């Protein structure tokens, strides 16, 4: 079980290394291995994506995999046997079909009645033709929903009013990129997104101009995305790393990385 899926850092400084079977907490000196059990599984009927980890409020770490989610109490280093009690504690009684945590650590739950806003304790109603919700995030008191059709839908957080919807590509191109989505928030009003289906692509959405731009396409599966600043981005694949100049839009592929000791 040594295939690392995600690496995160908690606010208290501890590192989280997630694999497909364990949560591994590192405190700077020792590892603590936390094994999940079947009793800690909550079914998510609407989640068809791959392994995804969120750091939420109340020292909770949410781990999603295909149609399932687990919740870890990182303070006490144990899984919750009944994740649904968290939803009930937040005032939600409906069956949760999918869940998300935004960059401000707020939990959002998708049910048959819409998207549950924990802070306001009310639902945001989604259009009937919206497709499958795959990602979300917030910026400047706006909620941005990213769906499998390639659209972004912008809502006001306070009252759930739909302000606009913008598509990254034409309807005829939707089937190329409809399987998965990974969104990273930039520092200057941008959202960067990886999409994958029969093809892979890297997009940016400017919330100021309300326009999408396709930065690159690839026949490889684009896996993870890091945007350390607005100048450069790094995308991992199964056999190397893309280095992308976000201003000149030049791309360099590294099939190996040279370490400080000179080895590859």
Describe the structure.
The protein is mainly β. The chain is 2% helix and 48% strand. The protein is built from one helix and 25 strands. The strands form six sheets. Strands 5, 6, 7, 8 and 9 form a five-stranded antiparallel beta sheet that branches. It has a four-stranded antiparallel beta sheet with strand order 1-2-3-4, with no helix packed on it. Strand 22 and strand 23 (232-237) form a beta hairpin. The longest helix is centred in the first third of the chain and has 6 residues, at 84-89. The chain starts with 5 loop residues before the first strand and ends in a 10-residue tail after the last strand. The mean pLDDT is 89.
Rounded radius of gyration (Å):
19 Å
User: How far is it from the N-terminal to the C-terminal residue, by CA?
Assistant: 24 Å
* Oligomerization category of the chains in this entry: single chain
Shape: globular
- Which spans have pLDDT < 50 for at least 5 consecutive residues? none
Task: Give a summary of the structure in a few sentences.
The protein has 264 residues and is mainly beta. The protein is 2% helix and 48% strand. 25% of the residues are buried.
Which helices and strands occur, and which strands form pairs?
Blueprint: E1 6-9, E2 15-18, E3 22-26, E4 31-35, E5 42-43, E6 52-55, E7 60-65, E8 68-73, E9 78-79, H1 84-89, E10 98-101, E11 107-111, E12 114-117, E13 122-124, E14 133-139, E15 142-147, E16 151-156, E17 162-167, E18 180-185, E19 190-196, E20 200-206, E21 211-218, E22 224-226, E23 232-237, E24 240-245, E25 251-254
Antiparallel strand pairs: 1-2, 2-3, 3-4, 5-8, 6-7, 7-8, 8-9, 10-11, 11-12, 12-13, 14-15, 15-16, 16-17, 18-19, 19-20, 20-21, 22-23, 23-24, 24-25
């Amino acid at each position: 079980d040594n295939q690392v899926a995600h690496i995160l850092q908690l606010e208290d400084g501890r590192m989280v290394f997630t694999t497909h079977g364990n949560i591994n907490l590192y405190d700077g000196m020792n590892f603590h291995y936390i094994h999940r059990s079947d009793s800690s599984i909550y079914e998510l009927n609407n989640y068809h994506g791959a392994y995804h980890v969120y750091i939420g409020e109340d020292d909770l770490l949410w781990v999603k995999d295909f149609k399932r989610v687990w919740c870890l109490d990182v303070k006490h280093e144990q899984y919750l046997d009944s994740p649904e009690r968290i939803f009930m504690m937040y005032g939600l009684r409906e069956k949760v079909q999918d869940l998300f945590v935004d960059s401000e650590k707020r939990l959002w739950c998708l049910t048959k009645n819409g998207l549950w806003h924990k802070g306001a304790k009310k639902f945001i109603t989604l259009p009937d033709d919206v497709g499958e919700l795959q990602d979300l995030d917030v910026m400047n008191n706006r909620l941005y929903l990213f769906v499998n059709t390639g659209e972004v839908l912008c809502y006001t957080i306070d009252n759930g009013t739909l302000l606009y919807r913008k598509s990254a590509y034409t309807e005829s191109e939707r089937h190329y990129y409809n399987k998965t989505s990974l969104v990273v928030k930039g520092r200057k009003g941008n959202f960067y997104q990886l999409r994958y289906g029969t093809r892979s692509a890297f997009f940016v959405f400017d919330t100021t101009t309300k326009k999408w731009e396709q930065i690159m396409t690839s026949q490889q599966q684009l896996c993870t995305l890091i945007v350390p600043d607005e100048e450069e981005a790094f995308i991992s694949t199964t056999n190397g790393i893309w280095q992308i100049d976000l201003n000149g839009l030049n791309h360099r592929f590294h099939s190996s990385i040279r370490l400080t000791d000179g080895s590859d």
